[in-house]
Amino acid sequence: MSELNNKSAAPYSDHPLERELAPLWQQAQAGDEKAYAKALQLIARRLRSFFKRRMNNTPEDIEDMVQETLMAVHTRRHTYDSNFPVSAWIIAIAKYKLIDFWRRHERRDRLHDEFDDSDVNQAINEAALGSNASNIADVQTLLTQLPAKQRKAIELIKLLGLSVTEAAQQTGQSESALKVQVHRGIKQLANMVQKTSS
Amino acid sequence: MKTDRLIEFLAQGASTEPAPALSGRLLMTASLGLLISLAIVMVLIGPLPAEMLTTASPWIKLAYTFLLVVAAVWLTTGLAKPLARLATPVTLLWLILLGMLGLGAWTLIQTPANDRFTALFGQTWLLCPWIVLLVSLPTLIALQKTVREFAPTHLRQAGFACGLLAGALGAAAYALACPEDSPAFVAVWYTAGILMTALTGALSSRWLLRWA
């Protein structure tokens, strides 16, 4: 049995985190508060990267999950079995917490979408220009060089995809004025692009 | 940053609190559960006639369920913790199950063809699994409450293990009231009752085993 344990523990104990964490954890179990604080810091960092990679859709909950798991690790630390690497034990708890989180949120999330302005803007930009980040950045810098009225008209009609009527309602300008702004703006953008490329 | 404050706070409790011994707690709960199952069986059905204790059949039932209890305690102890090695108890469970099925099949072959139906179904095959499930339920709930205090991370499997243990204990209690005497009956219907309890444990785990 002990042979078995050593074999599977070996690849973990070579891991840099485990090499740092294991001795701290041992000291902590003996009652060393400083070592325990250090161990928890390491664990928190590990948990943060674990959750970050798996909670893309709910980044605002990551830190809560780190704290919740830290508390679980603390209150259930008597379930640690020294036949296993500390980091593997931590990750087993983190996985449980993550599944529990998903279960708790699956019902709520079906009912509402997180509304975040930057997400909307990004989605609009991506829809208009593709997800190529440098495209988006280029157009944004060019747009800032336009007069405000032309820029607003192009953003609303060409990038956001509003109809001319809707845009007119939003800006309070007449439809024909908006069309002219778009036309002039596009022309000037084209000029700017030609200038920078030549 | 809030997480750092939390860590400072937690670190003040570094010294290990005396760890509640998992196997001790489990054995306590299991014994209590066995007594409750036994009480239900005796009130509901009453003990089997004393002369049956001189035959092999109650002892076969008790041996089968006792071995299952041992393997199930082992398995439950493992699944109550975040990490454990389960290969040995799982293998043990399979060996016990296959052994009992083998014994049942072997005795069935020895039985004259005309009596085989009775040997397999007895008088109470429809009742037996349900009684086992019924008398095991209090144990199942108590076991899940106990396991929940530790840190099971695979809830469904842990619930299944609790159910196996509760079912094996319940079947042991029922063995002292069950009038059937064929090993084939035990192999099929006792096993069915225990598996039904295990499935109940797995299905209820989402509510009874969840911990925060």
What is the terminal-to-terminal distance of chain B? 23 Å
Class computed from helices, strands and strand pairing of chain B: mainly alpha
Q: What is the total domain count of chain B?
A: 1
- Could you spell the SSE succession of chain B in H and E letters? HHHHHHHH
Cα-atom radius of gyration of chain A: 27 Å
Strand content of chain B: under 5%
Broad shape of chain B: elongated
Q: pLDDT below 50 for ≥5 consecutive residues: which ranges of chain B?
A: none
Task: Work out the largest interface and the residue count of each chain.
Answer: A-B, 38 and 31 residues
Q: What is the mean pLDDT of chain A?
A: 81
Q: If you consult CATH, what is the topology of the largest domain in chain A? A: Rna Polymerase Sigma Factor, Chain: A
Give the count of helical stretches of chain B.
8
Q: Unreliable segments of chain A (pLDDT under 50, ≥5 consecutive)? A: 1-11
Kindly report the oligomeric state of this protein. heterodimer
In whole angstroms, the N-to-C terminal distance of chain A is 74 Å
> Which bin fits the share of residues in helices of chain B?
over 70%
Biggest sheet record of chain B: none
At the first level of CATH, the class of the largest domain in chain A is: Mainly Alpha
Structure description:
The complex is a heterodimer of chains A (198) and B (212). Chain A is mainly alpha-helical. Chain A folds into two domains: 2-111, Rna Polymerase Sigma Factor, Chain: A (Orthogonal Bundle); 117-197, Arc Repressor Mutant, subunit A. Chain A has ten helices and no strands. Chain A has helices at 2-13, 16-29, 33-54, 62-75, 86-111, 117-129, 133-144, 148-159, 164-171, 175-197. In chain A, helix 4 (62-75) packs across helix 5 (86-111) and helix 8 crosses helix 10 (175-197). Mean pLDDT of chain A is 81; it is low at 1-11. Chain B is mostly helical and 212 residues long. Chain B has one domain (22-42, 56-208). Chain B has helices at residues 2-11, 22-44, 57-79, 87-110, 116-121, 128-148, 155-175, 183-208. In chain B, helix 4 (87-110) packs antiparallel against helix 8 (183-208) and helix 7 runs antiparallel to helix 8 (183-208). The interface between A and B is medium-sized, with 38 and 31 residues.
